[in-house]
Design brief:
The complex is a heterotrimer.
Chain A (H helix, E strand, L loop, with lengths): L4 H4 L2 H26 L7 H19 L2 H25 L4 H24 L14 E2 L9 H5 L1 E2 L1 H19 L1 H11 L1 H6 L4 H27 L11 H11 L4 H24 L4 H18 L17
Antiparallel strand pairs in A: 1-2
Helix pairs in contact in A: 2-7, 2-10, 2-11, 2-12, 3-4, 3-5, 3-10, 3-11, 4-5, 4-10, 7-8, 8-10, 11-12, 11-13, 12-13
Chain B lengths: L1 E7 L2 E7 L8 E6 L5 H8 L7 E6 L2 E3 L4 H6 L2 E4 L11 H6 L5 E2 L3 E2 L1 H14 L15 H14 L4 E5 L7 H16 L3 E6 L2 H7 L2 E6 L2 E7 L5 H9 L17 E11 L5 E11 L2 E6 L6 H9 L6 E6 L2 E2 L5 H6 L2 E4 L3 H5 L6 H5 L17 H14 L16 H13 L5 E5 L7 H16 L3 E6 L2 H7 L2 E6 L2 E7 L5 H8 L6
Parallel strand pairs in B: 3-10, 3-11, 6-9, 9-10, 15-20, 15-21, 18-19, 19-20
Antiparallel strand pairs in B: 1-2, 1-4, 4-5, 7-8, 11-12, 13-14, 13-16, 16-17, 21-22
Helix pairs in contact in B: 14-15
Chain C lengths: L1 H42 L4 H13 L2 H26 L7 H18 L5 H30 L3 H21 L32 H18 L1 H11 L1 H6 L4 H28 L10 H11 L4 H25 L4 H15 L1 H12 L1
Helix pairs in contact in C: 1-13, 2-3, 2-12, 3-7, 3-10, 3-11, 3-12, 4-5, 4-6, 4-10, 4-11, 5-6, 5-10, 7-8, 7-10, 7-12, 8-10, 11-12, 11-13
Classes of the chains: A mainly alpha, B alpha/beta, C mainly alpha.
């Protein structure tokens, strides 16, 4: 069972790593916004999954994958709104609400899949987002093939990350967000509408999760398959912690997890180990990373529900 | 403010209060803990809405809907618990909510710096503008809060118990700043429960007692006694009859104790302390000098990095909290709700905490409910705990009664050492007297009591010896009759002897 | 004096009212969920009344239905108790599914390979091994939390996936029975939990489940450990001050939690399937979570809610066959219940509006 290392490590692997990082990074950035306003969003898995379905459904009926992406983000935002209403307006337990959304997504997506396409397993193929190639970049040796050809959504990933950074650290809105998360009473006395910012943060997290889901169903594959998010919403949370709730940290962490994902797929195709063992890799890695974060995982926010007298 | 009434579940905080302040004056709002001062000012600042009553600013009647609205009216407030976002810088905190922008949406940091610097210079308040707030000492944080209010155009400034976290020297600096503000035509409302300060700095003083206005007087016309009379309605008992302190033996010996704070910085830098039986050792010090960490190290809730803690000859430096409880260490925590009680547990369940493995255990698995029940009844009677029943959830009891539960639980174990941290904080007068009386009783019965309190009057009234903690070290230990309040105050601020 | 008495009386009355209000919330949440579920069905072109009627008839209509309902309820009782006990200690064990699988698989191994034993030893041993395996799996997350401060929501979730893949690997490679299906060989007859209501699949597992309900109630209300776990869950700082070891509490809670789920998996294999089959669990771990919440985090409540969910599943299967409504509506109903239970304030405000 001698496997040449070069069979595993290849340009394709790194390209795949970037690809597989994309949904995780989007979801993790979403989680960042939610947690920075003080709301834990465990439901990102469900938001991603439902958005993936929504995107495919719209693409199916309109033939336009970009409308599908928009629909996915809208779906995610809607679910974010639900989470916000339950946790902010009604001060419900954030973890219970998120778990409820996850379960809802599991059932709802399978249900809708059955209704729309008559199959609980997978939908039909739909129009997807085609990869684009950046001319000069892809000719650069070594790096070129790795980053030269990707889905536009992949190229959007660093852009969105930078945008998140700018918003969070260079705009008044970002200050408000951080204030609301860390010390809502102080934000209130400074005249900030705490409730509005919390809603916004959670809805944005849903939309970003939706973007991640859209990537999975409209770019990576061109269909919806049951449970296609495969725990990525949770891995995104781990990436968020590993990235210390900072945009660029999250980007880096997401790339790491994307690498694990890509590695798992490559090893599977090489068939050197049973698929189940390989499939375990990203999850075991997540646990290992969380374990390695001993004590350094101090979230930026206080997650108590905010009450006005 | 006229006829202001406000109640919360179970408590009438403000009862038809009439309160007015003249422009350009420093007006004191005096009262005991729980008299309703903060609530009244929070209404003025728009944090609460009054149930009844009206507010007029500059003669015009207004309804203050929110802090933002209050600020627009020129009212600023510096709270007892700072409203500063820890990881944001001073500049960011001050301009929060009205940040200058460039290019439409980006922060204009240069202008932020310029604008705020101007204020700093004008009011002679010196602060490092780019430091994150959590790195700053408390006195400086307070200055930031004041700057924040001024930056937002406050003409009237409400200061809520500002000296609670300051050393006597820093308090003097604050008074200087207040006088400077007055000279600039600003109005200041000074909330406090400290008679002497209020007399020293205010022009007029309003005294609140149990939610009602007792009187408003000019400072020159008032004396400590007259104010105290109004605050409490009788002379405050400052002295307790203590029994003879015979046959003292060292119970607790602490040597070279070092420990880190939550943030990893050294909080205890070599504590040497001894508490004897039949004695109350009062530990005076401004909050934040290591008291919390010391209490935690003594009770086993914080790891000692170096040094030893010896109880009756046994080294307990590495002992678990359970072991210390079993060895006779009792702990009255400074934060009742955080460490003292489980609010959702019943009174009985709270009373048996700490003893669930020993006294209240039938065997190694099950609880002994009969013993728990009869003990609870006993404790409730002898400690005068007022509650509908022992199965009532503790959260429905008043603060004073909750503290009685804590005291009952800890003292009925017949401890050898009592570590009491801010034991009367937030309690009404009756409960305060009760707790203090119990501490003296313990002392007379031979228990060693370590009393940690930010209330110098309390330390003074109860202690046999007084120690002062400053920046993680014990800087002095003196018998109470060999020192003066001035000396202690000086030591608390880091001054040297003599 | 009179004031004090009337005040005390008023307070006691308020307590009682609050207590019964609690159950009211759960019931209201369930009703709301069914209403919204009906809307979903209607919007997708199905007749909700027909669907619900088919469900009800299938679940309770006859002895067979009742038997199947209880059969479906049995594993859920286990997983709901698992979630319950962890949440009493303030932990969110959402990995009950994984612990369930580990218990199922290990007990199947005992059932297969220790064939020489008499049933009186074989069954308890298999059950014990299943419980311990589940407990160990839960303990992993506990150690990660205690030592590394890793949040148990993520770790238990991840470990669930790992358990699914691990058992999947085991049943597809080393322990695979000959044939197409990913399953092990049958367990020895001496390891089988007897069927107590033929021709339904209801096994003696329900008796074990009922015993566990009683055990959980006893543990939480009458034992030192239960007291300490509840203290940790309600106020860890105060618990620590009272000498309770938080780390030890976390580990005990997660061990018991995982063990309960593992025991459930064992009963399911020994009583119903008699071999380990890949994918045999339609998400019993998740059901358990919902049920624990609906049951108000109380052992008896969990029992009742488990029967409700068991009815949903067994009735749902009949409904699907009769009306072609996808079975997933059951999962949707479950999720709706969770969401409504998570927002008690929402229901409270609804009830207030109705009273006006």
């Amino acid at each position: 069972m001698m496997v040449n290392l070069l069979d595993v490590i290849s340009v394709g692997l790194f390209a795949a790593a970037i690809r597989m990082a994309t949904p995780i990074v989007y979801a993790a950035l979403g989680g960042m916004f939610s947690e920075r306003v003080g709301v834990v969003n465990i439901g990102m898995e469900g938001m991603m999954l439902t958005s993936a379905l929504g995107g495919v459904a719209v693409s199916y009926y309109t033939g336009n994958p970009w409308l599908g992406v928009a629909a996915a983000m809208a779906t995610g935002g809607l679910l974010g709104l639900v989470h916000a209403v339950v946790t902010v307006k009604y001060a419900g337990n954030q973890i219970v609400s998120g778990t409820g959304l996850n379960i809802l997504a599991m059932g709802f997506t399978a249900y809708m899949s059955q209704i729309l396409w008559g199959s609980r397993g997978a939908s039909e193929r739909v129009a997807g987002i085609k990869d684009i190639t950046i001319p000069i970049l892809s000719d650069v040796p070594v790096i070129g093939p790795i980053i030269g050809t990707h889905s536009p959504l992949v190229y959007l990933m660093p852009v969105v990350t930078i945008l998140c950074y700018v918003v969070l650290f260079r705009t008044p809105l970002g200050l408000h967000i951080r204030a609301v998360g860390e010390h809502p009473t102080a934000a209130e006395t400074a005249g900030i509408d705490v409730v509005k910012i919390k809603y916004m943060g959670v809805i944005v997290s849903g939309m970003l999760a939706g973007l991640g889901g859209a990537f999975l169903s409209l770019s990576h594959l061109n269909l919806f398959a049951r449970g296609m998010t495969g725990g990525r919403g949770f891995i995104a949370l781990a990436a968020l912690i590993f990235g210390k709730w900072m945009p660029f940290g999250v980007l880096g962490a997401g790339l790491l997890f994307g690498f694990a994902d890509a590695l798992q797929m490559r090893l599977q195709s090489l068939g050197i180990l049973p698929p189940q063992i390989i499939l375990m890799i990203p999850y075991v890695l997540t646990v290992a990373i969380l374990a390695g974060m001993v004590g350094r995982a101090r979230p930026p926010s206080d997650y108590k529900p905010y009450k006005r007298e | 403010m006229q006829g202001i009434t406000k109640s919360f579940p179970g408590v009438l905080a403000n009862d038809h209060i009439d309160f007015s302040v003249e422009k350009g004056a420093i007006h004191g709002l005096l009262g005991e803990n729980g008299a309703g001062k903060t609530v009244l000012m929070s209404i003025l600042y728009g944090l609460y809405r009054p149930d009844e009553g009206s507010i007029a600013v500059d003669g015009r009647e207004v309804r203050v809907d929110s802090p933002a609205h209050a600020m627009r009216l020129g009212i600023g407030m510096v709270h007892q618990h700072f409203m500063l976002v820890p990881s944001l810088t001073v500049l960011e905190n001050i301009t929060l909510g009205r940040e200058p922008v460039m290019n439409g949406f980006l922060l204009d940091r240069k202008r932020m710096h310029r604008d705020v610097k101007e204020f700093c210079d004008r009011y002679r308040l010196d602060v490092d503008l780019t430091a994150p707030v959590y790195t700053l000492p408390v006195g400086v944080q307070q200055r930031v809060e004041i700057l924040k209010a001024l930056y937002r155009g406050a003409d009237a400034l409400i200061l809520d118990e500002p000296t609670a976290v300051l050393t006597p020297i820093e308090a003097e600096e604050l008074f200087g700043a207040m006088r400077a503000l007055k000279a600039e035509g600003k109005t200041v409302i000074f909330i406090s429960h400290k008679l002497r300060e209020v007399l020293a700095i205010c022009d007029r003083i309003t005294v609140l007692k149990r939610g009602r206005v007792m009187d408003t007087v000019a400072a020159e016309a008032a004396t400590e006694e007259s104010l105290a009379q109004m605050m409490v309605g009788r002379k405050i008992v400052y002295e307790f009859q203590k029994g003879d302190a015979a046959g003292q033996k060292p119970v607790l010996t602490v040597s070279g104790l070092k420990a880190l704070s939550d943030r990893g910085i050294p909080a205890l830098k070599g504590i040497d302390l001894e508490v004897n039986s039949h004695e109350i050792l009062g530990l005076a010090g401004v909050e934040g000098n290591g008291q919390t960490e010391l209490v935690e190290a003594l009770t086993g809730l914080r790891e000692a990095v170096e040094g030893t803690v010896v109880l009756n000859g046994e080294d307990i430096t590495k002992a678990t909290p359970l072991k210390r409880i079993r060895m006779g260490v009792a702990h009255i925590p400074e934060d009742r709700y955080k460490r003292g009680v489980v609010p959702d547990f019943s009174v009985m369940e709270n009373l048996i905490m700490g003893g669930q493995r020993d006294r209240f255990a039938k065997n190694s698995v099950a609880l002994d409910f009969r013993e728990a029940s009869s003990c609870s009844d006993e404790m409730m009677m002898s400690y005068q705990i007022q509650a509908p029943g022992k199965n009532t959830p503790l959260k429905f009891l008043s603060g004073g009664n909750q503290q009685r539960v804590v005291v009952a639980r800890e003292f009925s174990r017949n401890p050898k050492l009592v570590v009491a941290a801010q034991p009367t904080r937030g309690l009404d007068v009756g409960a305060t007297e009760y707790v203090r009386g119990k501490l003296v009783e313990m002392r007379d019965n031979g228990v060693a009591v370590l009393l940690i309190s930010a209330d110098l009057d309390e330390i003074w009234a109860l202690s046999d010896r007084i120690a002062v903690i400053y920046e993680g070290k014990i800087v002095a230990v003196k018998p109470v009759n060999e020192t003066t309040e001035q000396e202690i105050g000086l030591l608390m601020a880091g001054g040297r002897n003599g | 004096m009179v004031e004090k008495l009337t005040g005390a009386a008023r307070k006691t009355l308020a307590d009682v009212w609050r207590g019964s209000e609690g159950a009211l919330f759960q019931v209201a949440a369930i009703l709301l969920a069914f209403i919204v579920g009906a809307l979903v069905l209607y919007a997708s072109g199905y007749d909700p009344v027909l669907a619900y009627a088919a469900m009800l008839k299938g679940a309770f209509g006859d002895m067979y239905g009742i038997g199947q309902t209880l059969t479906q309820a049995t594993p859920i009782i286990f997983t709901s108790l698992a979630f319950l006990i962890s949440s009493k200690a303030g932990l969110f064990n959402i990995g009950a599914e994984g612990q369930f699988l580990m218990g199922a698989f290990t007990s199947s191994l005992v059932g297969i390979y220790l064939a020489g034993l008499p049933w009186i030893l074989h069954i308890p041993l298999a059950l014990l091994v299943g419980a311990v395996a589940g407990g160990a799996w839960g303990l992993i997350a506990a150690v990660l939390k205690a030592r590394f401060n890793a949040h148990e929501v993520i770790t238990t979730m991840m470990l669930s996936y790992v358990a699914a893949y691990l058992t999947g690997y085991m049943v597809n490679y080393p322990f695979k029975a000959p044939g197409w299906v990913s399953q092990t060989v049958k367990i020895a007859p001496t390891a089988e939990l007897p069927r107590i209501l033929p021709p339904t699949q209801l096994s003696a597992g329900i008796i074990v489940a009922l015993a566990l309900v009683a055990f959980t109630a006893y543990l939480l209300r009458k034992t030192i450990l239960g007291f300490e776990l509840r203290a940790i869950g309600l106020n860890p700082s105060a618990a620590e001050s009272a000498g309770i070891s938080i780390n030890r509490g976390i580990m005990m809670a997660m061990f018991f939690s995982g063990a309960m789920a593992g025991l459930g998996g064992a009963c399911e294999i020994l009583g119903v399937h008699r071999r380990f089959i890949e994918g045999f669990s339609p998400g019993y771990g998740w059901d358990g979570l919902a049920v624990a919440l609906v049951g108000g985090l109380d052992p008896v409540g969990s029992l009742l809610a488990s029967i409700l969910f068991g009815a949903l599943r067994s009735g749902g299967m009949i409904m699907t066959r009769a009306t072609k409504v996808p079975l997933d509506i059951v999962i949707i109903l479950q999720a709706l219940v969770i969401l409504f239970v998570a927002a008690p304030m929402f229901i409270r405000s609804l009830l207030k509006r109705r009273r006006k």
